[in-house]
Amino acid sequence: MNLLIQYLALCWFKNNPADLIPSKSFMWKTVAFYLISGCIVEGLISDPADGSLEVFLRTIMAFSSVAVFLLVFKKWQYFNQLYIAIFVCENFIMTLATVTEGLYFLMVMKHQKNAEEISIGIGALLVVWYIAIVSYILRQAFETKMSLSVILAISYFVLTYGIPMLFMDI
């Protein structure tokens, strides 16, 4: 539990992912939660089979992107710490996105006039926060300037969400 709290502190821009050493059990649970929560959210948005395939493609792209970043910056030894840091924070954001989906459903059922705008606003805020978190994690791990870490975080977001989404549209 202490390790989870240390990783979740990254969502509030505290700690350095390179200093956190995850256990094998923690890594498997984090990836499993990533896959399950992603499939739930995508299943709520689209067809469950297509959503699941997109989540698996996203997972492959996430691992690949982290690996490329680490190879470029010559910090391969931080692979486990970096992908777990990103996945734990993404799991947190994904949990908030799931709550947002539930909130949207409740607002629609209660005929809330601005339900869609509220849901989209929360979703946009979550995406911006997610990019900021990934930027922070990459800046801490690679000891880069903020501008480069923001570019890397946006690239990571496009690679892990954009490419699988484009693939699914084919």
Name the features.
170 residues; mainly alpha
Protein model, in words:
This protein is mainly α and 170 residues long. It has one domain. 81% of the residues lie in helices and 0% in strands. It starts with a helix and ends with a helix.
Present the secondary structure layout.
Blueprint lengths: L1 H7 L15 H22 L2 H25 L6 H31 L5 H28 L3 H24 L1
Query: Structural class, please?
Result: mainly alpha
Largest sheet: none
Low-pLDDT windows of residues = none
Radius of gyration, in angstroms, nearest whole number:
16 Å
Number of domains: 1
End-to-end C-alpha gap: 42 Å
Helix content: over 70%
How many helical stretches? 6
- Annotation, overall tally of beta strands: 0
Task: Give a nutshell description of this structure.
The chain has 170 residues and is an all-alpha fold.
